[in-house]
Write a structure and sequence with these properties.
This protein has 239 residues and is mainly alpha-helical. The protein contains twelve helices and three strands, in the order αααβααββααααααα. The protein has a three-stranded antiparallel beta sheet. α1 runs parallel beside α4 (45-52) and α7 (116-130) runs antiparallel to α11 (184-197). The two termini are 17 Å apart.
């Protein structure tokens, strides 16, 4: 925990003079997504508030916001914990992804499309793979899908999927073999990008549907083995 808090203290500068619960929640959301605070970890109000230099009330409001986003859980008389997803949560995340991401591609209209963000995410993933940075590859994969959603040019959709992708990272942090989980999808990202570069959104949607179906099966298989169907106790953190 000391190492995590040292890194978190470095985020204090991000708060500037406009320290708000929303900004604190942004920082904590990023740290949770990065695995600084893994699923099941208890978040100490005193330690985190001290590291960020924010009041207890501000921090509690940030916790409330992240609880609403299903990233944290509050247990009476025990504290606040990073949530551990159930298998049903993972399935619901992918159901939402399929509904939103495929609809974004389907509704793109006529080419050409603004694909610089997608191309950068593919390059980011290729670089991570060369460096054997499998956690970084997972991050690049999330960036790819975030940029895909951004093609809809909808702030509401971006906000919705920001929370969905953050939840998805909670599942990824439980997986014990990130290379096996993420590496096969680097090629698929490139194929989707190439289809969109060619102006073939129907092929891109078909590739995306297969991609998400295969990814769901793989993630659920690994997740069920690691966590199981009953996460009632583990979602609360250590006893």
């Amino acid at each position: 925990m000391a190492e995590q808090l040292t890194g978190l203290a470095g985020d204090r500068a991000l708060l500037g003079r406009t320290s708000t619960a929303e900004r604190v929640s942004d920082i904590l959301r990023s740290r949770i997504a990065e695995g600084y605070f893994p699923p099941g970890a208890r978040l100490s109000e005193d330690s985190i508030g001290g590291a960020l230099g924010v009041s207890r009330n501000t921090l509690r409001e940030a916790f409330r916001l992240l609880t609403h986003e299903r990233l944290l859980v509050h247990e009476l008389n025990r504290g606040v914990f990073v949530r551990v997803l159930a298998v049903e949560d993972v399935e619901d995340i992918y159901r939402t992804r399929r509904l939103v991401e495929c609809a974004v591609v389907r509704g793109l209209g006529e080419p050409p499309y603004a694909l610089d963000g997608l191309a950068s995410a593919v390059t980011e993933g290729q670089r991570a793979a060369v460096e054997h940075d499998w956690k970084g590859l997972g991050t690049a994969n999330i960036h790819f899908h975030r940029e895909l959603v951004a093609l809809a040019a909808s702030e509401r959709t971006d906000e919705l999927m920001r929370s969905v992708f953050a939840e998805l990272r909670l599942a990824f942090h439980v997986v014990d073999d990130p290379r096996r989980l993420h590496e096969p999808y680097l090629t698929r990202n490139r194929q989707i990008l190439q289809a969109l570069q060619a102006g073939d959104r129907r092929e891109a949607e078909r590739l995306l549907e297969v991609y998400l179906d295969d990814s769901l099966k793989r993630v659920v298989e690994v997740y069920r083995r690691r966590v199981g169907d009953d996460t009632q106790d583990v979602s609360r953190g250590p006893a």
